[in-house]
Amino acid sequence: MNKRHFLVLIFCLAMTQYFQAQTKKNQANVDYAEKYSHIAVNKMKQHGIPASITLAQGILESGAGNSELAKKSNNHFGIKCHEWEGERVYHDDDIKNDCFRKYTKVEDSYEDHSLFLKRPRYASLYTLEVTDYKGWAHGLKQCGYATNPNYADLLINIIETYELHAYDQGIKKAKDAEKKKELAEIEAEMKSHYLLDSKMGDIPAFAAHPVRIVNGKKAVIARAGDTYESIAKEFGLRKWEIRWYNKAKKGAVPEEGQTVFIRKF
C-alpha cells in the first residue's frame, strides 16, 4: 500500500468514527444544551459552578426537559420540597407522591440549583477549577448529591459526548486575563511605592528618613531610637553593608543627629 492510499484509508476511518459518534448523540440532548447553555453559563459566572456540570445534570435529571416533572413544574434538577415555601407538585419518586419544587420558569430552576449547591456540604467543590468537570462530577457523588453509584460517570459521559466542557472555557480564559491584569496593576503599584527616581538615584519613596548627599555619598540623619539595623531595613540594605559604609562595629548604635551613610559612593 502506497503512502497516498494509506492516508486516504486513515481519513476514511477518521470520518467513519466521526459520523458514528454523531449518530450516537441524542438530538433531544443536543437541543437541550443549545437552548439552555446561555443560562448555564450565566449561572457559572454568578456562582462558579461549571456550565458543563449544570447542563449535564439538567439533561440527566429532566430527560433533556422532557420528563413529566420538568414539563409540569419547570423543575429540571429534581429538587424536592425540603425548606421550600413556594409552589409544589407531587410526583412518584423515592416514595409515592413525593413533593417537588415548582418554578415559574426554567431559569428559576437553574438559579435554585446553583443556590442548592452553595450548601456547606458542597463547599469542597469550590476548591476545584471551573474547567475540572471530572473533579466536579466525582465531587458531587462524594458529597452525596445522588444515590446512583454511577452518577459521576453518567455526567462525564454526557459532558464528553456532547462536548459541554466547551462552555466552561470562556469564563476560565476571562478570569485568567482578569487575574493577570490585576497582578500587573498590583506590581506596578508596588514598584511606584518602592522606588523614587531623584537626582540622587533611586531611593524608597516612603522612606522615613530624608536622603541627602554628604561628601558625595547618600546619607540620612539618625533619630532617637534608630539603629543601624533599622535604617538598613528601611533602605533595603544588609546589616553588614551599612556597618561597612559607616565603619561601625557590631553592637554600635548611631547617636541622634549622627550622619549615617546608606551608600559608600
What can you see in these coordinates?
With 265 residues, this protein is mainly α. It folds into 2 domains: 27-172, Lysozyme; 198-261, LysM domain (Membrane-bound Lytic Murein Transglycosylase D, Chain A, Roll), CATH 3.10.350.10. It has 10 helices and 7 strands. It has a 3-stranded antiparallel β-sheet. Strand 3 (196-198) and strand 4 (201-203) form a beta hairpin. Helix 2 crosses helix 5. The longest helix has 29 residues, at 166-194. The chain is rod-shaped. 25% of the residues are buried.
How helical, in percent, are the residues?
Answer: 40-55%
Distance between the termini: 79 Å
Low-confidence stretches: 5-9, 11-23, 193-200
CATH architectural label of the largest domain: Orthogonal Bundle
Q: Let me know the number of strands.
A: 7
Radius of gyration: 33 Å
CATH topology of the largest domain, which one?
Lysozyme
Shape: rod-shaped
Number of helices: 10
Structural class based on helices, strands and sheet pairing: mainly alpha
Main β-sheet, in a few words?
Answer: 3 strands, antiparallel
Q: How many separate structural domains? A: 2
CATH class of the largest domain, please? Mainly Alpha
Strand order of the largest sheet: 5-6-7
Mean pLDDT: 82
What's the order of the H and E elements? HHHHEEHHHHEEEEHHE
Tell me what portion of residues adopts beta-strand conformation. Answer: 5-15%
